[in-house]
Amino acid sequence: MQTSKNFLAKPILNCYNKFIQLFVIYEVINMKMDDVIARINVLAKKAKTEGLTPDETAERDRLRRIYIDSVKANLVGHLDNTYIVRPDGTKEKLQKKDS
Predict the structure, then answer these.
(1) Is residue 63 within 8 Å of 36, Cβ to Cβ?
(2) What does the chain look like in DSSP terms, one character per residue?
(3) Are residues 52 and 65 part of one domain?
(4) How many CA atoms lie within 13 A of 60 on its CB side?
(5) Closest Cα partner for 66 from 96, 97, 22?
(6) Statement to judge: residues 46 and 88 lie in one domain
(7) What pLDDT, on the 0 to 100 scale, is given for residue 99?
(8) Same structural domain for residues 7 and 20?
(9) Which residues contact 67 (CB under 8 A, 6 or more apart)?
(10) What was the pLDDT predicted at 31?
(11) Which residue range(s) make up the domain with 88?
């Protein structure tokens, strides 16, 4: 029998992960991707020349996460709308691979 702690841990973790994903999406909506990329590049140049403060390092990491999540979301969006056309002309929606 599962303890209540273990029983609740997975749903709470899933809920937390969804919250983080929504928060990142909210940040991306409020910030243009060109601005994100430009700021990442400024911070990268500064890191190579003079180094970053802890706040700038945290900002860089946050912006990189926003960029990576945006690229992943775009890829998933494309794959969700991808169909395989069979030789007989039938279309089959691309299925997600079970991990």
Answers:
(1) yes
(2) ---HHHHHHHHHHHHHHHHHHHHHHHHHHHS-HHHHHHHHHHHHHHHHHT---HHHHHHHHHHHHHHHHHHHHHHHHHHHT-EEEPTTS-EEEPPPPP-
(3) yes
(4) 15
(5) 22
(6) yes
(7) 65
(8) yes
(9) 33, 36, 37, 40
(10) 72
(11) 32-99
Residues 36 and 66 in one domain: yes
Using an 8 Å Cβ cutoff, are 28 and 69 in contact?
Answer: yes
CB atoms within 10 A of CB 42: 12
Chain CA centroid to CA 28, Å: 10
Q: Domain check: are 62 and 24 in the same one?
A: no
Q: Does residue 60 contact residue 52 with C-beta atoms inside 8 Å? A: yes
C-beta of residue 65 within 8 angstroms of C-beta of residue 24 = yes
State pLDDT tens for residues 23-59: 666 665 667 888 889 999 999 999 999 999 999 999 9
Number of domains, the chain:
2
Phi, psi of 42 (to 5 degrees): -60, -45
Identify residue 6 by its one-letter amino acid code. N
